[in-house]
Every structure is written in structure tokens, then in C-alpha cells.
Amino acid sequence: MISSTEPTGEDFPLTPPPPIEKKLIYNHAPRYLNIINEYSENYARLDSVIKEFPDSEAIIQRLNKMFVNVADVRDDGKLCVGNGDAQLKLIENEIYNMIVNDASFQADEVPEEIINQFCVALIAVAVAKCRVLLRPGDDDAAA
Q1: Does the predicted TM-score (pTM) go above 0.70?
Q2: Buried-most residue among 7, 70, 90, 130 (CB within 10 A)?
Q3: Rounded to a whole number, what is the distance in angstroms from the first to the last CA of the chain?
Q4: Which residues pair with 72 in a beta bridge?
């Protein structure tokens, strides 16, 4: 079960994650299903690289916080399935803005399309690691 507070290792089940496609469909994100499939090679590369990155868990937790900030919430405070495409677009925009507004970012060295591809790949990694979007079945009130 995903907690609506800052994540800890205990907030997430130990069962294997569902396929990313199933998760995107469950969370009403068919547009991102197509986008992530288009950039699947970038996702695979980033997924293998991020495992070696020293602060990778902190990055994924930050993405979870971004998701919690845009997620739909029931009256009881629990996250629920909403418009996954809109939620992921907000997260993508936030990642993009963090990159281009960073003081060390050199816009003349990195094409915008590369940044966009990275943003989508990072979202795909977070979705696959069950830190962004709900697992099928987590929202017992899903319609």
C-alpha cells in the first residue's frame, strides 16, 4: 500500500511489481503507455545506470513525492486512481524545469529532445519501481 506521507521502505509491498503496461492502463495513462513504449530503449538504459548511482533511492523517493503532490486523494486521505496521463505530464514538466533551471545546466550542450527523453525514461523507471502511480488493486475504490 502506498502511503500519502513521505515514503519509507515499509510503505510499499514486497511483492514483485506488476508489468509497467498494466500499471499505466490501471491508472488511466494510455498516452504515457505509448510515450514510454516509444522511449523504451532509453528507459532500459536509465534503469541499468540508476542502479549504480549512489543516491538513486533518493531520486526515486523525490519522484514519489512529486506523484503524491499531484495524485487524486479520497476523503479518507488515501491515494486513488485518477487521470494518470495528466499526473505524469505534471511530473514530467516538473523534472524538465528542475533540469533546465539548475545553475549548472548548459542549454547549448544538451538538445531539448534529449532532456524530454530523459524525463520520460525517469518517469518510466519510477513507475516500474512502484513509486509513481498505484499498483493495480491498491485502490479498492477505483472505478
Answers
A1: yes
A2: 130
A3: 18
A4: 80
**Secondary structure of 86-128 in the HEC alphabet?**
HHHHHHHHHHHHHHHCCCCCCCCCCCHHHHHHHHHHHHHHHHH
Q: What is the CA radius of gyration of the chain?
A: 15
| Beta-carbon-side half-sphere exposure of residue 2 (alpha carbons within 13 Å) | 28
Pairing verdict, β 79-80 and 72-73: antiparallel
C-alpha 48/C-alpha 120 separation (Å) is 15
pLDDT per residue over 53-79, tens digit each? 888 889 999 999 999 999 999 999 999
What are the b/e assignments for 5-41, b being 16+ CB within 10 Å? eebeeeebeeeeeeebeebbebbbbeebbebbeebee
Q: For residues 54 and 74, what is the distance between their CA atoms, to the nearest angstrom?
A: 35
C-alpha torsion 143→25→125→101, nearest 10: -80
101, three cell numbers: 533551471
